[in-house]
Amino acid sequence: MSTNLRGPLLALLAFGIFATHDVVVKYLGGVYSPFQIVFFSVVFGFPIITFTLLRDATEANLRPTHPWWTAMRTFAAVVTGFCAFYAFSVLPLAQTYAILFASPLLITLLAIPMLGEKVGWRRGAAVVVGLAGVIVVLQPGTTELSLGHAAALVAACAGAFASLVVRKIGRDERPVVLILYPMMANFVLMGAAMPFVYEPMPVQDMGALVVVAVFALAGTSCLILAYRLAPAVLVAPMQYSQILWATLYGLLLFDESIESPTLIGSAIIVASGIYIVLREGSGGKSTTTPVLRTRSRLGTPGAPRVAPFLSEESRGPVPPDQQD
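Request: output the structure for the sequence above.
Response:
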């Protein structure tokens, strides 16, 4: 089997694991606050950071070179994880994914002011069409929009912003700084909420939180291998397979049926996202390939970023400040 085939297959496995991760989050979200779920998922994810720190032989401290950008990225990462977990808890899985899939569209849009990216009319039209797909999913005026819908939209926006900040300052900041600060912020902020929201957890639910942390690591590991084996243009579109898992899990485990607007809107968003990925991969007018360089998966606060574990060849011929 060629590496160009093994890479996408590993990515499919990775996103299948991530989808299962989100099922456990949804199960726990029916009983516990997102503050509590995020807090313990980060606590159980700290061993991952320990290995990352041991791997980094750079002689330096953990003081950020760009403190304000690091602070903004840390805040955006915390908001992304919390809002994504809340959305998974209260919305149908397929609907949540459909909204989160707007993140690559927003990355393309925000890359114009943040990275100086040149976006041609074709990719610009794809962004407009994709965002129209989000409106189709939300059905404003005919569907009562909830805090869950707002949370999913905020997660998509914050996740896009956080990814672009990494590419803007990644050349100067150590990877462990970009990984450790959001986890520490999650630990402190979510921990501060524990006295107000904590619910005692039986052993099986605590075990489910361990599963969340393990699945985040397993999915990220598979994704790292996928990007090592195959070009990003072949791996990146595999993220949209999560909508299939969401439909299956939603039907079997939560009695969720996918509604026509969600199906149609999802198709529009996915088609737009894949077009942008292919357009960036073909050269086009993209100089920074912002979507293809966003390798880490949205909404997993207990997992490390993907890029620090890739070789220079796997990352592609772009400056380090444009990698994520």
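The mean pLDDT is 88.
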